[in-house]
Amino acid sequence: MRRHNELRAKHVNTPDLKWSDELATYAKNWAEKCNVDPLEHSNGNKYAESIANYPSLKSAIAGFYSEVSDIDWSNIQYSQGGHFINMIYRCVRVDPCSRGRSEDNGS
Questions:
Q1: 81: closest CA among 95, 96, 93, 64?
Q2: Which residues are in coiled coils (predicted)?
Q3: Distance CA 82, CA 97 (A)
Q4: Local structure of 95: helix, strand or coil
Q5: What's the pTM?
Q6: How do the domains of the chain map onto residue ranges?
Q7: Residues with Cβ within 8 Å of residue 50, at least 6 apart in sequence
Q8: Is the peptide bond between 55 and the residue preceding it cis, with omega within 30 degrees of 0?
Q9: In which element (H, E) is residue 18 found?
């Protein structure tokens, strides 16, 4: 979470995230049953999800943040860089990070 907060700090009005055991449990449960190919979001939940297939948490954070180059700052659209927007959106206050394991790549 330290690296996530370092990247958030580059943007105005983005306070540090705080850990949530409740959201971490929710994320872990979905990650353990989520299909890898194709990746699937859960249906009908009340939480935003950033789902991707990266070999490590460090590479996922870097990959999500790299979407900053997709943003048209004069007309921000979620479809331009949704993972990046989820990372820095000022209303986000907790980090429910988890990862599942796939049979083909072990992560």
A1: 64
A2: none
A3: 16
A4: strand
A5: 0.67
A6: 20-33+49-94
A7: 64, 82, 83, 86, 87
A8: no
A9: strand 18-19
